[in-house]
Every structure is written in structure tokens, then in C-alpha cells.
Amino acid sequence: METAPSTLAATQLLLLLAVLIPAIFFLITQQNTLKAVLPENRLMHPGLVWLQLIPLFNYIWQFIVITRIAGSIRRQLASRHADSIFGADAAIADGTSRRPTQGIGIAYATLFTLLVPINLFQDVAGRPNDSLLLGLVALGNMVCWIIYWVQLVQFKNKLKRTLAIG
User: Fold this and answer.
1) Which of 9, 48, 92, 112 is the most exposed place for a label (fewest CB within 10 A)?
2) What is the DSSP string of 68-79?
3) What is this structure's pTM?
């Protein structure tokens, strides 16, 4: 039984919205996290996160955004300790010597990027698109994305608290 073109279009529109709405909220979180960093500690302008909406370009740009957000958070946390009497010891104790959110962010972006070649390979090989590998990569991507998103919110809130105190 074939689906009517109007039903198919409505289904595709709903699917697009189901993907686009969370993506927009995620980009707002990335932008607000960068806004919580003082301008002198930012490695990129907060508005540049929206370039991730550009198809194909987003596969490269997401890695740049993740790295620059992590570096910006690290610089902000480190600058907080620059004036303290403890100096570098306080920064190390706070964990600012690492790049917060970068590890899980890169994992999410890598898995997201891998979905394309896995899907293409299955099409070329004539395999069904519902393979176990595709499902596992998609699930791993979703889990890493949620963890990354939660970490961004936590650091954004931490940065806002420290700016309010200082």
C-alpha cells in the first residue's frame, strides 16, 4: 500500500521538526555557555555556534565549536584563580588544567559524523538500513549528546555563579 504524497510530506515535516527543535535548544545552550564566559576568555563569538545548522559544513564546524567552548570554559575557570593567593594550585584543584566538556563532546560529534558513512555503506552494499551497527552508533551518539548537553548546562551555571560572586 502506497502512502499518499500529502501524508508523506506531513510525516517528513514532523520528523524534521522532531530533529530541529531539540537541535535549536542545544545550540541555544552552547551559545549561552559561551555568553557565560567573559569576552576576554572566549575563543569564539557565541553567535558562531549557529553555523552548525549549515548542512555538510556542520560535520567539521561542530568539532571546532566543541573545542573552542571547552577552551573558553577552561580559560574562564583559570582566570578566576589568577588573582587568588593560591594561584596555580587552586586551578589544578578545580580541574581547570583539562578542557571541560571536550572529551564527551568530541565523542558525540564523532559518532554523529560516523552515522553518514555507515548509512551510505549500507545503501551501497544493499544492506537494510536498520542494522545493529547503525543502531548502536545512533544510540551511542544520543547518549553522548545528552551527557555533553548536561555538562554544558552545569558549566554554564557554574560560570554564572562565579561571575555573580566575583
Assistant:
1) 9
2) HHHHHHHHHHHH
3) 0.83
User: Are 49 and 64 spatial neighbours (Cβ–Cβ below 8 Å)?
Assistant: no
Distance CA 33, CA 25 (A): 12
pLDDT of residue 116: 87
What is the per-residue DSSP string for 116-156?
HHHHHHHHHHT--TT-HHHHHHHHHHHHHHHHHHHHHHHHH
Task: Report which residue type is found at 64.
Answer: I
- Spatial separation of the C-alpha atoms in residues 20 and 113, rounded to whole Å: 17
Joined together, the cell numbers standing for residue 157 give 551555571
**Taking 70 as the threshold, does the pLDDT of residue 14 lie above it?**
yes
Report CA-CA distances (Å) from 109 to 4, 71, 115: 36, 17, 10
Q: Is 70 exposed, middle or buried (0-12, 13-18, 19+ CB in 10 A)?
A: buried
